[in-house]
Amino acid sequence: MLSIDTSPSALLGRAGELERLAELVGGARNRRGAALVVRGEPGIGKTALLDEATRAAAGVRVVRADGFEAESAMPYAALQRLGTPFAALIRDLPGPQASALRIAAGLDAGPPPDRYLVGLGMLSLLAAAAEREPVVCVVDDAHLLDPESLEVLAFVARRLEAESVALLLGMRPEPRADVAAAGVPVLDLAGLDAPTAVALLNRSAADPVDPYLATRFAEETGGNPLALIDLALEFSAQQLTDHSLAVGPVPIGLRLESVYLRAVDALPTETRRWLDIAAAESTGDPTLIDGAARVLGVTVDAPGPAERAGLATVRDRVRFRHPLVRAAVYNAIPAGERRAVHAALGGVADAAGRHDLAVWHAAEATVGIDGEVADRLEAVADAAGGRGGTASRARLLARAAELSPAGPVRSGRLLAAAEAAASAGAAQLARELLDRLEGDALDPVSAGRVAQLRALIAIFVADRERILTGPSTMLRAAELFHGIVPALEQRALVWAFDLTLTVEWAIEGVTLPELGQRLAAGVDVAGGPLSIALRGLSAHILLPYEQAVPVMRDALDMLFELDEEALLEIGTFGVALSMALWDEQACVRLLERIAGAARSRGRLRDLDTVLWLLGLIELVRGDPAASGRYIDDVRELRHAIGYDAEQVVNGSYLAWAGAPVPQVEAIAEAVLGTGFAGAWTIAMMGLSVRAIADGHYRDAFERLRPMIERPFLQVTYQQMPEYIEAGVRSGRADDVRASHARLAEFAAHSGTPWIRGLAARGSALLAADEEAEALYVESIGHLAESTVIGELGRAHLLYGEWLRRMKRRREARQELRAALDIFERVAAPAFAARARRELEATGERVAPRQPGGAADDGLTPQEETVARLAAAGRTNAEIGAELFISANTVDYHLRKVFRKLGITSRRQLAEHTSEG
């Protein structure tokens, strides 16, 4: 009989691992939330370790929801089982979180929630439950979870901090699961060391094992505990000798399966048939297994011999001795009988109202084409999508396509599956599904959707060729939609513009004027916001500036009238228009509104993009300190999502912050090699500003000149002020007069304080001494009315330098002090050093900067963000929703902030923040 010792002493050699798990459980009792992935091959002891850790736990509530193959395409199935004990607490959660959980569980109808909003709801639910009693969540076989549940649990795992919650995930090392759980601490279980393995072998064998044979056996099994226990029993029964081990290594899984199959073959026929049914119903639901057994004529006492043999147990659910036992049984079922078993289980599940499970069994019972089952799968896929299960929808539709005959229906399902996979962030799966399409069988709209999706996917997989041709591909998609689906045509045209910003001057397959003409042609295809957007974008490309300004302004104003969902869909093109209008304040308001919409809907990938853009805009405003805060926000956000946070690299920010120039150049060239020419330009701009700050004007001029000579819309607009300063200071004033004339034109027709200040500053640089002073004063006046703080500092610096050359040292000091104060506040070290040198040249001794601000108070980036939001009057719950952490974690960070700052109240925090 195969059986296992379940006493604590059974876990030989796992003292260190048990201690680590005990620390996590103990932390939950002391408001130190944490998570751990226990990862290892089959039989390595994951389940035994999790069982022992929770059996020994005192003073905590243990909840469990293991993974089942049959639920792997049922969105949020495992999450629903895990959260059911706490369902009564959902009503106390913030409204959006509660709604997301209920829709995900299929309890309410509503817009499909983003899985990260579901994740925040689950985090809040567990935190609320833990206020009553510490909670330990255990999920074994997590690699079998539905993708939505696994991603939500991984999100929760990464956000646990000050909650009385521990989350333990047991899984095999599989690529999909490893990617989903990225960023969660991992305990990799290895085999037992040789002495411990020999001890376990001798304890398990019926008779003493020869020491040499025991050592060889331990080495060959890699110290796998399950193999040592179960194979030892088998070998002892057969009185194997050391010679039997000389046939060469065999995978542990295959060896064990052969052992289990011999045990199964020794059972009565009825018991073997019952085991077949139980193996096919991976959830272990005894109601379904018993029902299918009745359908197939299996007697009620059939499970008995399997239990006595230690192969399975029947309690609240049927559990196999080990997943390898189930795999051995299932894989040995003849194909025809296996389909009959699944058909019986599907019928019973249908009768019980378990339609998702019924369809899964129906699909497993099907060979070849079956339109009826395919239709049922599609219906379940649509229901999954309605609950926010985009990844599950992709899987179900892909399976439906496999069961569909070749033709439009099959192609439509594959295409919809690819779109769902892309929406779920599974770009590689989306590409694989697209590759299975038969292009000549697609109607024009479907062909357009394929082209559109390939162009968008290219960005996420860094496909250089498709990135460079992305705008032209999107235009081709628009042509395929033309005259059939106007909304899709216009959306594709706006996307074509967005993709053009990614590749800029490196664009292939279409010229900028051709793009503008095609956008203009799409204006009258239909009315509405997209029409206004296309009118503004085409004007930006095609019209003289004075004619384009009112059209661009109308398009930008339209964005502020959209609801949040529409704004998330198309709003980011407004960044280009606001920059073309030199309206930095409108740009920031727009991005902040989009960020708020993304947060409220849990759309963290959209939020990531917006925060990145806000960081870039802060550099345009000359505030690298603010840009750095956004970069920290992006880093924290990517940690929450599970991306590698260290990939947050912004070449322009590095240049502003003082990184070595060769390092920034290397980063820029690497980015350019992937097709992201827009990111390369941003880095070059940062290096140009850095060169000006360092006084290397000729270097800046030579770096900027080729970009000015190949102009690219509003991107080149931002380069002109730097080009003018670099040209004048390097003796090339005549070469930059045309660019200054262009700036003056912008100022005349846009009229914002920002561009008026820059135009006046450029005029001052080019003017004779008797005219310069009034222009510098005018520039400072305009820029003081704007929010481009760095540009204001530079205007003070240039005026101060001019005053010093005019021998007006006292007045120069006033301007240079103002400049230095700004540069130190915005953390622009190169400009600060230049201002300090100029001040010292006037004879003033510059004292070291006095400590002050959050960075000097030792606050971490997250503590600084929490402090800033709390000082602005936000509640803990509101801060938690914005930062995707629990209210408990907000309180934890605030207490640390108070301690570091030596304060005791939010009022004092607000005063400290205003002083900083």
UniProtKB/TrEMBL annotation:
<keyword id="KW-0547">Nucleotide-binding</keyword>
<feature type="region of interest" description="Disordered">
    <location>
        <begin position="842"/>
        <end position="861"/>
    </location>
</feature>
<dbReference type="InterPro" id="IPR016032">
    <property type="entry name" value="Sig_transdc_resp-reg_C-effctor"/>
</dbReference>
<dbReference type="InterPro" id="IPR041664">
    <property type="entry name" value="AAA_16"/>
</dbReference>
<keyword id="KW-0067">ATP-binding</keyword>
<dbReference type="InterPro" id="IPR036388">
    <property type="entry name" value="WH-like_DNA-bd_sf"/>
</dbReference>
<dbReference type="Pfam" id="PF13191">
    <property type="entry name" value="AAA_16"/>
</dbReference>
<dbReference type="Pfam" id="PF00196">
    <property type="entry name" value="GerE"/>
</dbReference>
<feature type="domain" description="HTH luxR-type">
    <location>
        <begin position="852"/>
        <end position="916"/>
    </location>
</feature>
<protein>
    <submittedName>
        <fullName>LuxR family transcriptional regulator</fullName>
    </submittedName>
</protein>
<dbReference type="InterPro" id="IPR027417">
    <property type="entry name" value="P-loop_NTPase"/>
</dbReference>
<dbReference type="InterPro" id="IPR000792">
    <property type="entry name" value="Tscrpt_reg_LuxR_C"/>
</dbReference>
